[in-house]
């Protein structure tokens, strides 16, 4: 799509790149490895001096979260996105950390992450002064389930997450 657009001599803007990232995100949901394609699009944006914004980074995190479910993305990839955000003068948002938690959940389902990884993301979120939400804890519970599937989580881990939810004022019934 992007090549067809540029072959006409037009210069893609942020919306065109975001549309392309949305297409890549949908491909990632099917299990296709899309991580490098997403980072290539981000590099092209930089080359074209097109400024990425929060929606661009949400697409990237979505691609990584879906890719992690198929063993094709890691927390290091999320760190790479974070560095790109900082380079674009963007602050990480709660949705960024929710995306990181979704990556942990995907990795845990592949036996590549633990509940400790989820706790580390939660702690980073708090250090940034952000309040975890139902979305955060839903992904954390998915990480717990993935880890438990591989005998890497216990009832105590689940109880600790529920206690943390209470401390954060998040209603457990929502999960």
From TrEMBL:
Keyword Repeat found: yes
Domain of life: Eukaryota
Pfam families with a match to the protein in the record: PPR_long
TM regions (residue ranges): none
Official protein name in the record: PROP1-like PPR domain-containing protein
Residue ranges constituting the PROP1-like PPR domain according to the UniProt record: 36-155
Keyword vocabulary terms for this entry: Repeat
């Amino acid at each position: 799509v992007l090549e067809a657009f540029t072959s006409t001599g037009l210069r893609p803007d942020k919306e065109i790149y975001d549309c392309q990232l949305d297409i890549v995100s949908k491909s990632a949901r099917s299990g296709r490895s899309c991580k490098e394609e997403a980072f290539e699009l981000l590099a092209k944006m930089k080359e074209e001096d097109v400024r990425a914004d929060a929606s661009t980074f949400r697409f990237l995190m979505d691609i990584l979260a879906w890719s992690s479910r198929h063993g094709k993305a890691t927390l290091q990839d999320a760190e790479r996105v974070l560095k790109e955000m900082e380079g674009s003068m963007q602050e990480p948002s709660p949705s960024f950390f929710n995306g990181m938690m979704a990556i942990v959940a995907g990795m845990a389902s592949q036996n590549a992450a633990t509940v400790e990884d989820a706790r580390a993301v939660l702690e980073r979120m708090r250090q940034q002064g952000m309040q975890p939400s139902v979305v955060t804890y839903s992904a954390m519970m998915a990480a717990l389930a993935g880890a438990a599937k591989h005998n890497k989580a216990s009832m105590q881990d689940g109880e600790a997450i529920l206690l943390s939810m209470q401390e954060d004022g998040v209603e457990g019934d929502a999960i």
